[in-house]
Amino acid sequence: MRDVWLIFVRSIRPTLSNPVVLIFGLIQPLLWLVLFGPLLNSAGSWQWFVPGLIIQLGLFGTAYAGFALIPEIRSGALERLRVTPVSRVALLLGRVLRDVVVLVVQCALLVALSTIFGFHASVADVVLALVYAAVLGLSIGSVSYTLALKLKQEYAFAPVLSSTVMPLMLLSGVLLPMNQGPEWLYTISRINPLSHVADAVRAVVNGDFTADSVWIGGVVLVVLAVLCLLWGTRTFRRANA
Fold this sequence. Notes:
The chain has 11 helices and no strands. With 241 residues, it is mostly helical. The protein has one domain (2-239). It is globular and about 55 Å long. Belongs to the ABC-2 integral membrane protein family.
């Protein structure tokens, strides 16, 4: 835990010294909020749309985190950390923890700004939704750093992300209800774990804790986090052996 904290502090210092990073991370979901949200003019549309933006921010906010590791690999900074007594697993978890903290702050700001447009939820509901977002960020961030460690080059890392992140977002139903599309598309979307997480966050934000989607999304999210962390920690141990 001490090593995780050391790597976390090392990773978050540039963000604290330049808070603009937080603001730019909010630009995309804010654009969706301002330019796309008003098109959903049905009653309660903001209660449906804002949780989807939380999932979108959790996906995009951490999926590209691995880009920050590639320069460290190229410059030899990561190699210098490898020869220190610091835990090899901490090299992953410390970085992911930084991304999760930034993600939670961005999601909280997004929810606060959403109230201007008519979104409303209790503090307890929002906190629980942020927990879902944090665990999602933990999963996606672990995969991002693991892929960066394996691929080691931006030209290889970028197409892998572009070919996976966008389909995951579109098939998660964060922008439009998937049950209003063709049956085959809805069936494919249910294979996407993010669709179950999105359903859970929507139910939580609206205080519907008895919905099946709450525990289904929670189970899917825990399993996803365990698998991603196992893959990530195993890769970092072997790469740094």
